[in-house]
Write a structure and sequence with these properties.
Chain A: One of its GO terms (biological process) is regulation of early endosome to late endosome transport. The complex is a heterodimer of chains A (312) and B (584). By secondary structure, chain A is an alpha/beta fold. Chain A contains eight helices and twelve strands. Chain A has two domains: 144 residues, Beta-Lactamase (2-Layer Sandwich), CATH 3.30.450; 144 residues, Rossmann fold (3-Layer(aba) Sandwich), CATH 3.40.50. The chains are: A alpha/beta (312), B mainly alpha (584).
Chain lengths: 312, 584
């Protein structure tokens, strides 16, 4: 299962775009942000979580360039697209409305997981909104995405069906995971196979999301586990509550302090420190035996040979 | 707590107490009645149990309550209990007391034992009857016989009695005698045995569930005193009851016959046995029936519950069905649309387009409201931000002022410290030297200075006088010289005498000589002054200790020269230098 080629380890989730909602958040020059438009609606806690995520992105990423990140909340994927800093207001008359705004963030809510698709659509939406400064034009684009699955604006046209559902899984790093953790990878494999609660910690969002999906790819193939994956979760209560009563999940967190709350996990993976710790209450379930070791050794061996092959 | 209350109320109702549905709603009278009836069951042999009635005078009521409290404590009630806790009960008190009383009630498991004892008692009383009859036989003749409290004339021949009397006896004496008999049994057993047949009845009652819960309390109380026969009587529900009567009814005739005929006693015994047996059987049957009834009731309850759940299920399923039907309808419609003619599809498309357009219109309308609102929010934010900045500025000012204040305070402090220090010094000083001594000295000095000034002035005046004198003298000298010169010159011209000419020459010579002398004298004075100035300067220079400095300079010079030599030597040979430095 682990020796499969990287990026093709998971069955594809449902293909059609199931877009639910779209929100515009304007980011001030002095670190404030405001949700200025939503279709069809938005919840307060949901928006608060979005604000926190955007603030995190703002803190961590460099000031220039567009950013696209995603997270899951309440069974829907939220794709955050943040525009690069807007040019000075006297360039275009339309932008006079953005005189106080530094950047625009557009959040697309969708049921399906397809980061590439929603990054492109999000960027298109941003371009539309920045050029027109009118949410009505954006709404037309959004409705055309919902109804026809297509968007056309100026010279670019996008088709939702064009994006292969497998595409998002091409960047798994199963092998790097194995080389990083060595024999201990077997703990991860067992945890996913036995449907334990896994919490992953990494410092950067992109790496964290990849690690979480890699761990999922390590041991699971079906869509049945797809509901239990939360690649990027803050450590505040309203986000932690969404999987509080689940028996199995893989959760990514940017805050290492969650290690001190063993009630949330059976296995804690600290990527930067390359440590896997099993919570004391789950030790019995995670007992390792000889076959485990054999599998682990085989896994490591395979990863090495593959690497050699790649080097040749 | 509700559960406990439920159990309590259930039990109290079972023992025939008139209680409501809640412990908290019990009145004091009800409570006391409940406790009393419990006590009667617990201690059926206690004939001294007080009775309580709300119509009784207050003092008696208090007394009774006190008695009950005492009884309860005697039974082992651990909590504090007084008459007031029964007369004016709190809910918790009442609950505690009732729990205690109910716990002390005889258990159902004792029922079987009690039935046994009842039988045994029946047996024993029968035996006793025999004995009694024996003794009565012995006593008989002459006095007549008293059977069961009914006095019969001694030598009554039943056959001789009128028919009506016999009939009356047969019909009415049965119950009477039977009741009396039972009472006697009870009394005798009370005296001789601790086991009492009475409590048997009530538990049987409880168990049967036949007892009428609405039965007046008086009956319940009576029951404890009544015979088992009466207990049977008060069970109107038992269908078998009528069967019981005939054997009892037969009894008086037996009794009557016993008096006259000894062999009838055996029959009577047998019949009594039969009765006891029947009684037992009946009791068992009734128990069984009660049990069955219980089971049936439980079954019924279960069934009703099931019916309810099933009904719920049915309703839910109906709802589901409705939903499904709606879905099917919708799907049918969509199917028709999709699979029907192309117009349908187009219709749908048009409808969607129309909806989209509608939405767009709405959006445009919303935008007209939204943008100003957002702008308003932004301006408000800006305002609040500005306000905040104003606040921040004033805060900054306040801060600087505060720091200034601090600084000033510090300064004041240091100044104060200096002041205190100076004050201390001043105080110290004023102790050593008095102000007056200073002033005295100052005045002395001033006096001296004044004196000196006077003297200086005097000297100055003297010198001025002398100068004036000198001037006048020199003037006079000039004038006299001029006069003498003129006279001598005239004489010399007149006489042309040589001596006069000579004297004139001498005069001139004297004059010039003297003027020379004066000049030299003046010069000498000047020189003397100059020398005095120089002397002063010399003194000053001496005070500066030039000689020491010179000496030092010389020594330094010597050292410098020495060093120069060493340096020169080092240039030539470094080893020499080292030695020299060592030596130096």
């Amino acid at each position: 299962m682990t020796n499969s080629t990287e990026g093709k380890g998971i069955d594809s989730p449902p293909v059609p775009a199931k877009v639910i909602a779209c929100h515009i958040i304007e980011l001030d020059k002095c670190d404030g942000m405001m949700k200025t438009w939503s279709y069809p609606s938005s919840e307060r806690t949901q928006m608060e979580i979005c604000f926190r995520k955007i603030a995190k992105i703002r803190d961590s990423s460099s000031a220039s360039g567009a950013v696209a990140k995603y997270f899951k909340y309440c069974k829907t994927w939220h794709y955050i697209n943040i525009s690069p800093p807007l040019p000075s207001p006297d360039m275009k008359c339309a932008e006079s409305k953005f005189s106080k705004i530094d950047r625009i963030a557009i959040i697309i809510e969708a049921e399906d997981f397809n980061p590439a698709r929603y990054e492109d659509f999000g960027n298109l939406f941003i371009r539309v909104f920045v050029a027109e400064a009118n949410p009505t034009v954006l709404l037309r684009q959004f409705l055309s995405l919902v109804v026809t699955g297509k968007c056309h604006w100026e010279n670019t046209s996008l088709k939702a069906s064009k994006y292969d559902a497998i595409l998002p899984f091409q960047n798994f790093r199963v092998r790097s995971l194995i080389t990083k953790f060595g024999i201990e990878t077997i703990v991860l494999l067992t945890a996913v196979l036995r449907k334990q609660r896994v919490v992953v910690y990494n410092r950067k969002v992109d790496a964290l999301i990849k690690d979480v999906l890699s761990i999922l790819a390590l041991g699971s193939r079906g869509c049945d586990t797809w509901d239990n994956v939360f690649p990027w979760v803050g450590d505040n209560d309203d986000e932690l509550a969404q999987f509080a009563d689940m028996k199995f999940y893989i959760v990514g967190c940017l805050n290492a302090s969650i290690e001190n709350r063993p009630s949330f996990y059976d296995v804690f993976v600290n990527i930067p420190a390359a440590e896997i710790s099993v919570a004391s209450h789950a030790k019995e379930r995670m007992m390792m035996s000889k076959p485990h070791k054999e599998v682990a050794l085989y896994m490591v061996q395979l990863a090495q040979t593959r690497r050699l092959m790649n080097m040749i | 707590m509700e559960e406990v209350d439920g159990i309590l109320i259930y039990t109290l109702k079972q023992i025939g107490c008139d209680v409501g549905s809640k412990i908290s709603e019990l009145s004091s009278q009800q409570l006391i009645q409940c406790v009393l009836s419990c006590l009667k069951l617990i201690r059926p042999d206690d004939s001294e149990l007080p009775t309580y009635d709300s119509k009784m005078p207050m003092s008696v009521r208090f007394k009774v309550a006190q008695q009950i409290a005492q009884l309860l404590t005697d039974l082992g009630y651990t909590e504090e209990i007084e008459c007031q806790s029964l007369l004016y009960p709190t809910e918790s008190d009442a609950r505690k007391v009732l729990i205690f009383a109910v716990e002390k009630l005889p258990r159902e498991s004792e029922v079987a034992n009690q039935i046994e004892t009842l039988q045994r008692i029946a047996q024993e009383t029968k035996n006793k009857e025999e004995n009694e009859i024996d003794t009565e036989d012995a006593l008989a003749l002459g006095n007549g016989i008293e059977v069961d409290g009914i006095r019969l004339p001694s030598a009554v021949d039943i056959n001789k009695l009128p028919k009506e009397t016999l009939k009356f006896y047969a019909s009415h004496l049965a119950d009477l005698t039977f009741a009396k008999q039972r009472e006697k049994y009870r009394k005798s057993s009370n005296k001789e045995r601790t086991i009492d047949p009475v409590p048997i009845q009530t538990p049987v009652y409880d168990d049967d569930d036949f007892g009428d819960p609405d039965e007046p309390e008086g009956i319940v109380e009576n029951e404890t005193n009544s015979t088992s026969a009466e207990t049977e009587k008060s069970k109107p529900v038992i269908a078998e009851k009528p069967k019981l009567k005939p054997p009892i009814a037969q009894k008086p005739s037996l009794v009557k016959t016993q008096i006259d005929e000894q062999p009838d006693i055996n029959d009577k015994q047998r019949e009594a046995d039969d009765i006891a047996e029947k009684l037992r059987l009946l009791q068992e049957i009734s128990k069984e029936k009660a049990l069955r009834l219980h089971q049936r009731r439980d079954g019924l309850k279960e069934l009703t519950l099931k019916i309810n759940t099933l009904q719920d299920d049915v309703e839910r399923l109906k709802e589901q069905l409705l939903d499904k039907e709606k879905q099917v309808d919708r799907q049918n419609k969509t199917h028709q649309l999709v699979n029907g003619d192309e117009n349908g599809l187009e219709k749908v498309k048009n409808a969607i387009d129309a909806q989209v357009e509608k939405l767009m219109n709405r959006s445009v309308q919303w935008e007209q409201h939204r943008q100003p609102l957002i702008d308003q929010i932004r301006s408000k934010q800006q305002e609040s931000f500005n306000g905040e900045s104003d606040v921040a500025r004033t805060r900054e000012k306040i801060k600087s002022l505060k720091s200034q204040l601090k600084q000033m305070g510090q300064e004041a402090q240091t100044k104060e410290a200096v002041y205190t220090k100076l004050l201390a010094e001043y105080e110290k000083m004023s102790k050593d030297l008095s102000r007056s001594s200073y002033t005295r000295r100052i005045t002395e000095i001033i006096g001296n200075i004044k004196k000196q000034k006077k003297e200086i002035n005097k000297v100055l005046q003297d010198t001025k006088q002398i100068q004036k004198d000198i001037n006048t003298l020199s003037g006079r000298l000039d004038r006299t010289f001029a006069v003498a010169d003129e006279l001598i010159y005239k004489d010399a011209e007149k006489d042309k005498d040589k001596s006069v000419a000579q004297s004139y020459k001498l005069l001139v010579a004297i004059h010039s000589d003297f003027s020379k002398i004066i000049k030299t004298l003046e010069e000498a004075g000047n020189l003397r002054r100059q020398s005095r100035d120089l002397e002063d300067k010399l003194e000053l220079e001496k005070g500066k200790s030039v000689e020491d400095k010179l000496k030092r300079l010389r020594a330094d010079l010597g050292q410098m020269q020495n060093e120069n030599m060493i340096l020169e030597a080092r240039l030539r040979d470094p080893t020499i230098k080292r030695n020299q430095t060592c030596s130096s």
